[in-house]
């Protein structure tokens, strides 16, 4: 969401702050999860979850999805599930 705000005609400091807060939150969460989980499994789960979150936030921001984009997101998530098992 922050990247979308910053990518406009004028630079948005709020968007930049949102990017930094999101990166800090993601890094903190991943560090906490790595303490009790294997890196290989956790990475696969995180890629799938992050893909789903991007799709949800894009819908929230009013982006239009084509069937091709939905299929691509579904393939990424299903591929992560297949590799994780």
From TrEMBL:
This is EamA domain-containing protein. The chain crosses the membrane at residues 42-61. Keywords: Membrane, Transmembrane, Transmembrane helix. It comes from Celeribacter marinus. The keyword Membrane applies. It comes from the Bacteria.
């Amino acid at each position: 969401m922050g990247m979308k705000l910053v990518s406009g005609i004028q630079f948005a400091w709020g968007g930049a702050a949102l990017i930094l807060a999101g990166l800090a939150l993601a890094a903190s969460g991943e560090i906490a999860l790595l303490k009790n989980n294997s890196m290989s499994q956790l990475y696969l789960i995180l890629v799938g979850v992050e893909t789903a979150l991007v799709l949800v936030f894009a819908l929230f921001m009013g982006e239009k999805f084509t069937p091709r984009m939905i299929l691509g997101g579904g393939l990424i998530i299903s591929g992560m599930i297949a590799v994780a098992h």
